[in-house]
């Protein structure tokens, strides 16, 4: 896939653009020259309604919803602006409204966003948009997030004068593997067309027919297969484009929204987790210009499904005589701690996941230091490599590889062959798998079955959990609080959206229980508590606080890539 536009370029005007004086609804303000009128109004808390405009896409100027009344400086006989008593230009107002998306600020421009002319234009545009639009909001999947619905209420007439038969257009058109089109709801804003062409690099959508019969369509013999196709459902202002995964599954006003990050690769796209009653229904991109702008890939967006997999491990237990017997957490943690305590440190290995949070990795480090004493415990992470796409998708599929390196956990998989060799030679006789499958990392099950101790902590059953002596079910990214460091060295927070299912337990609490059972220090039982202890001891995090990280994250000093 050829990606042809930088999604992070959010500078709507050059950084060195000079400031100009603009009259906005009677008040003179200063804004950068060249900033479009929609953004001028936005900077001062005013909304100019619009459909086709999007700050990351080219200007189309076809919906006409953003019409405003425009004034220009009145010129005297000397062709210079006439000034009033305060030294401001006297404005003359154009009789014809202009579109705000394609009009940029210049010295002395006048802008009226709520005059009688503007209000009349908004009512007229909405009336035309609704002529052939089906009035079926109660059954539309976009209800609650529909800009046509909102603007019709805020700016429309409240009634229609159209009494003719509406033009019927195709419904439930399958235009791609993950997205559906309801043409009858499309208002021809062309946002999806421009996104596919300019950002996804997949020119496959266009407008066909003429006049009132215009409709959106995919090109003949083509499908919208881009790994970014679902972003068009986000930017569609109506219910024309919907995702197959979320369509008709839940009304959006029932969803609890939690700000978090995607953990499907090292980019760490900012997301909003939509959940209800312990179930995650969707992930949508959250704007962060330093990370992912307005977008995220489809792969990451759909990466939450393992949370509710039928293979989720929900009961902690101990295996005896080939059977796993459920047990109580305090007893099991004491038993695991006692078994670990009896080991020679050189015979124990930790296989750790770079999908764990910094706080969890910090506790793994404390557990390792507590167990190894003057010896050394073999510790390694499992790398996950994919293919970078030049936009957002990283070739590192672990979301916290950089955090693991900062905390001194593993060497990106370089020593994995040593792990297998150590088990084969009998030097490593015990293994603690933390959200990793040792069999999947290259250690044959026959070797794992011969270990004197195999402890497994994770969320989905795998070949290691099936033969582990102790099984400790942990939490997914949506079930805990913590931080991760993305590929660019930016520290970001994940936040708990749902509780852990069954008798699974947050990993911080599991690790805390083991450390306390071994007589170690209490580092706290929540992400913010452990973060404070970690920031006091790890140089890369010193001076930072949980609150200070915020919902947009911070770049760690010395970690910029």
From TrEMBL:
<dbReference type="InterPro" id="IPR027467">
    <property type="entry name" value="MopterinOxRdtase_cofactor_BS"/>
</dbReference>
<keyword id="KW-0001">2Fe-2S</keyword>
<dbReference type="InterPro" id="IPR000283">
    <property type="entry name" value="NADH_UbQ_OxRdtase_75kDa_su_CS"/>
</dbReference>
<keyword id="KW-1278">Translocase</keyword>
<dbReference type="Pfam" id="PF00384">
    <property type="entry name" value="Molybdopterin"/>
</dbReference>
<dbReference type="GO" id="GO:0042773">
    <property type="term" value="P:ATP synthesis coupled electron transport"/>
</dbReference>
<dbReference type="InterPro" id="IPR054351">
    <property type="entry name" value="NADH_UbQ_OxRdtase_ferredoxin"/>
</dbReference>
<dbReference type="Pfam" id="PF13510">
    <property type="entry name" value="Fer2_4"/>
</dbReference>
<dbReference type="GO" id="GO:0016020">
    <property type="term" value="C:membrane"/>
</dbReference>
<dbReference type="GO" id="GO:0016491">
    <property type="term" value="F:oxidoreductase activity"/>
</dbReference>
<dbReference type="GO" id="GO:0046872">
    <property type="term" value="F:metal ion binding"/>
</dbReference>
<keyword id="KW-0472">Membrane</keyword>
<dbReference type="InterPro" id="IPR019574">
    <property type="entry name" value="NADH_UbQ_OxRdtase_Gsu_4Fe4S-bd"/>
</dbReference>
<dbReference type="Pfam" id="PF10588">
    <property type="entry name" value="NADH-G_4Fe-4S_3"/>
</dbReference>
<feature type="domain" description="4Fe-4S His(Cys)3-ligated-type">
    <location>
        <begin position="117"/>
        <end position="156"/>
    </location>
</feature>
<protein>
    <submittedName>
        <fullName>NADH-quinone oxidoreductase subunit G</fullName>
    </submittedName>
</protein>
<feature type="domain" description="4Fe-4S Mo/W bis-MGD-type">
    <location>
        <begin position="255"/>
        <end position="311"/>
    </location>
</feature>
<keyword id="KW-0520">NAD</keyword>
<dbReference type="InterPro" id="IPR006656">
    <property type="entry name" value="Mopterin_OxRdtase"/>
</dbReference>
<dbReference type="InterPro" id="IPR006963">
    <property type="entry name" value="Mopterin_OxRdtase_4Fe-4S_dom"/>
</dbReference>
<keyword id="KW-0479">Metal-binding</keyword>
<comment type="similarity">
    <text>Belongs to the complex I 75 kDa subunit family.</text>
</comment>
<dbReference type="GO" id="GO:0051537">
    <property type="term" value="F:2 iron, 2 sulfur cluster binding"/>
</dbReference>
<dbReference type="InterPro" id="IPR001041">
    <property type="entry name" value="2Fe-2S_ferredoxin-type"/>
</dbReference>
<dbReference type="GO" id="GO:0048038">
    <property type="term" value="F:quinone binding"/>
</dbReference>
<keyword id="KW-0408">Iron</keyword>
<keyword id="KW-0411">Iron-sulfur</keyword>
<keyword id="KW-0004">4Fe-4S</keyword>
<dbReference type="InterPro" id="IPR050123">
    <property type="entry name" value="Prok_molybdopt-oxidoreductase"/>
</dbReference>
<dbReference type="GO" id="GO:0008137">
    <property type="term" value="F:NADH dehydrogenase (ubiquinone) activity"/>
</dbReference>
<dbReference type="Pfam" id="PF22151">
    <property type="entry name" value="Fer4_NDSU1"/>
</dbReference>
<dbReference type="InterPro" id="IPR036010">
    <property type="entry name" value="2Fe-2S_ferredoxin-like_sf"/>
</dbReference>
<dbReference type="GO" id="GO:0051539">
    <property type="term" value="F:4 iron, 4 sulfur cluster binding"/>
</dbReference>
<dbReference type="Pfam" id="PF22117">
    <property type="entry name" value="Fer4_Nqo3"/>
</dbReference>
